[in-house]
Design goal:
The protein is α+β, with helices and mostly antiparallel strands. It has helices at residues 39-47, 69-72, 83-89, 101-108, 145-152, 190-202, and strands spanning 5-12, 19-27, 32-36, 59-64, 117-121, 131-136, 159-164, 175-178, 184-187, 203-213, 224-232, 248-253. A hairpin with a 5-residue loop joins β8 (175-178) and β9 (184-187).
Length: 254
Amino acid sequence: MKTKSTLFLAWQDQISRSWFTIGRLTFDGTNYQFTYTQGVLEAQEKCGFEPLASFPRLGEVYKSTYLFPVFANRLMPKNRPDYLNFIQWLNLSQNENGRDPIAILARSGGRRETDTLTVFPCPELDSEGRYRLHFFLHGLRYLPPCAIERINRLETGEKLWLAHEFHNHYDSKALTLNTEDHYIVGYCPRYLTREIFELLKNASFVEVRVELVNQPPTPLQFRLLCNITAQCYDAFRPFSSDEYQPFIGEVATV
């Protein structure tokens, strides 16, 4: 039986630049299901979030045998000349995960220039009882050339260190990733920082390592793929707070 896959949908307010987890998509191997999460209430209260056109009613459970367009439109068309390169940037197998739209969205984030949405996966326990999450580092365009050069010399498996950049005037919760020789090589995605802070408080082991460095001319947003591994205390489960829980009412079939 196929394990249910879960992606969260995050929305960024264009004025405050704040991120909110507003929805979750699940796939059980046959059916896709989308619900808003309770995080949408915070987005409405603080930034006036309006329901997405594809999912106009809060509280409904949307079901479909096809991937909803708001997610499907975030996949690179397979007939693009650079499609195979794209799958390699994500470090996915071309024979299996490279054909799985959920796996592709989970790894790529599904960002588009035309809107303020992104997706990220809900991590599952591995065989060793650890959670693992992959993400591309953000903010590389703001780094000096020496940092980009250092990124290009990183090796798969190299350890990186998290640091709270509390003096950051744009984001007081910014988390940088740093090399052993003290280069800042990027930032954790802002929509993940709240949960990573929770991991740091509730895990006996948290480690970030380089998964893959995609050399130039790979776009900077896909240059440095990392993974974070955490061994959590028994009572803690990541992505289990209220903002990630379904905001459920009626069921709608699409």
